[in-house]
Write a structure and sequence with these properties.
Number of helices: 3
Distance between the termini: 26 Å
Mean pLDDT: 86
CATH topology of the largest domain: Porin
Helix content: 10-25%
Largest sheet: 16 strands, antiparallel, barrel
Number of domains: 2
Radius of gyration: 35 Å
Shape: elongated
Amino acid sequence: MRRISRSFARFTLALVALCLFHSGLAVAQTQEPAKEPAKPTAEVEQLKQRLQQLEQTVSDLKGQITAIEEAKSKPAAPAIIEATYSEPPKPAASVSPEKAQNNNGKGESTFQIYGFAMLDAGYQFKQNHPDWFDVIRPTKLPAFEDEFAPDGKTYYGVRQSRLGVKATTPTKYGELKALFEFELFGTGVDAGQTTFRLRHAYGELGQFGAGQTWSPFMDIDVFPNSLEYWGPNGMVFFRNLQFRWMPLKGRNSVTLAVERPGASGDQGMFTDRIELQGIRPKFDLPDFSGNVRFTRDWGYFQAAGMIRRIKWVDTIQDNVDLDGSEIGAGLNLTSNLKFTPNDTGRFAFVFGQGIQNYMNDAPVDIGIELTPGGDPRRPIKGVALPMWSMVAFLDHNWNKRFSTAIGYSFMDIDNSNGQAPDAYHRGHYGLVNLLFYPVENAMVGGEFQWGRRENFLDGFKSDDFRIQFSFRYNFSKSFNF
């Protein structure tokens, strides 16, 4: 309105000046009637030019007033925001619970479609399990000489490609969020296949969330900016079914959850014993997890904990009783440190027992241990295997177009005396890369990768060396309504 008022004032002044000019010209003509046509003078030419300028100003002001009035009469179109995708996907821009409550359920909602198409191509100098041909997993390296021979192979894959949708809506109970995401990396019975696999199916309303997403025991921000898909073996990495409570959100946060239980066991040297064929897991309690995060200008620090009961029953009726249970518990300390605007350190230190199910690349949670004294009714028992691990990576941005990630990860298992000599004992993981971003939503890069497996008692070690090149094309579209 102020803009219209100013335009109207300028328009009025121009009309007044124009009228005064014409009036003055008429008076001059009546006072001094010319007997014959007068020749144009310099003063008259100047007045004519001034008149043309005033007429042009009036025309421009009329156009501005018309455009403003037409714009005000039209309804506003929905805002469409362009956005780029990053790993991992962050929640869409949110409205605070206070604002949502004030709106009484009416406010700005968002809907985003995102993902990327990615090609991985590389050469492996050594060997590993063929179902895991395009990743570095120390647990999948040979446990004895030439287990997965021959050495050397070229590999290609698009299994990292991803598609997801997420939405947010303010309500009087807080922000409503929903996330649904797939990728093409097959695991489990689909290991080695290019097939759709669910990553996230999760929703939140205010302080409460439910579905499949990152475990609170995990910290996804430890994951480096790497090309290799699986990631550091020593970090906690698990998307689990859960119900969570988030009493504190923001720069400082608290999250508590109950999660779907699960574990695995190693029968070691007694695998073929008939007494063990009737052992069945029994999960009658959920896993309990939580974390506390403190965020500052220099980065953040997070402490996460996990406690769980792992139970099994002997279903064979004989003279041997192999029922048992163990407590799994662990602590995961993580941090991102902003050394400079272009350098971020990513660190993790994990220790506990019976938490291997939550680790990114680890063997079993329960191992076999010989019972002291040779009790014939209970000659062996299951024990939670102690472990510890660490992650240390640096992400460096050379400029807006180039970046590098470099780092190392490690895991150590305290094996039980009933496990086989070639049982997994220790794993190493490392990489260095150079990534190039020619435009905002595209990336191409090369990476050198290394992994090592060390056995429990027989002294065998196996290494894996790879060179990988990847091409990624991101897409994302957000709608506010």
